């Protein structure tokens, strides 16, 4: 698997690498993307999207986020990303990026995890419940 839009974000990937050379993390390729780990545990991942480049934090919901830079994508419970559109943005926020990565590393070393909601605790919309009731093969599951 190859990182989406990799060619478009090559300069941003290199800037992000320059931004954090002192961290004692191993760079690996997971899901076709540069992923940084400590003792095999995922800390951050570099991701390319059509409109932006992202630094993803696997346990980002644990971070304090004083600059309000972290964004939750979709329905993920723990993961958060920082979005960038160019190299200059990354360079300007280098100190902040380093602080957030240090905090993520510390959280991993401390073994901290987000307490995830169980799938059953998510509300099921009434429309879906009704459709399931109408379909005989799903009657037992509602």
Task: Give a quick summary of the entry.
This protein is of the alpha+beta class. 29% of the residues lie in helices and 22% in strands.
Structure description:
It contains four helices and six strands; from the N terminus they run αββββββααα. The mean pLDDT is 91. The chain has helices at 10-19, 87-92, 94-109, 126-134; strands at 26-30, 33-38, 41-48, 53-57, 70-71, 80-84. The protein is α+β, with helices and mostly antiparallel strands and 142 residues long. The termini are far apart. It is elongated, with a radius of gyration of 19 Å.
The total count of strands amounts to 6
Structural class: alpha+beta
Taking pLDDT < 50 over at least 5 consecutive residues as the criterion, the unreliable ranges are none
The helical percent reads 25-40%
Determine the N-to-C terminus distance.
Answer: 37 Å
Question: Strand order within the widest sheet?
Answer: 1-2-3-4-6-5
Overall average pLDDT: 91
Written as H for each helix and E for each strand, in order along the chain, the element string is: HEEEEEEHHH
Strand content: 15-25%
Broad shape: elongated
Sheet of most strands: 6 strands, antiparallel
| Total DSSP helices | 4
How much is the radius of gyration in Å? Answer: 19 Å
Task: Write the SSE topology.
Blueprint (H helix, E strand, L loop, with lengths): L9 H10 L6 E5 L2 E6 L2 E8 L4 E5 L12 E2 L8 E5 L2 H6 L1 H16 L16 H9 L8
Antiparallel strand pairs: 1-2, 2-3, 3-4, 4-6, 5-6
């Amino acid at each position: 698997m190859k990182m989406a839009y990799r060619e478009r974000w090559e300069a941003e990937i290199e800037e992000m690498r320059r931004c954090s050379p002192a961290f004692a993390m191993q760079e690996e390729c997971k899901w076709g993307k540069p992923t940084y780990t400590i003792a095999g545990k995922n800390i951050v991942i570099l991701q390319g999207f059509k409109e932006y480049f992202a630094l993803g934090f696997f346990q980002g919901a644990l971070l304090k986020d004083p600059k309000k830079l972290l964004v939750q994508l979709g329905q993920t419970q723990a993961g958060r990303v920082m979005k960038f559109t160019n190299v200059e943005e990354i360079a300007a926020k280098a100190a902040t990026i380093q602080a957030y990565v240090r905090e993520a590393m510390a959280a991993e070393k401390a073994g901290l995890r987000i307490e995830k909601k169980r799938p059953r605790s998510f509300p099921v919309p009434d429309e879906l419940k009704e459709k399931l009731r109408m379909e005989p093969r799903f009657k037992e599951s509602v």
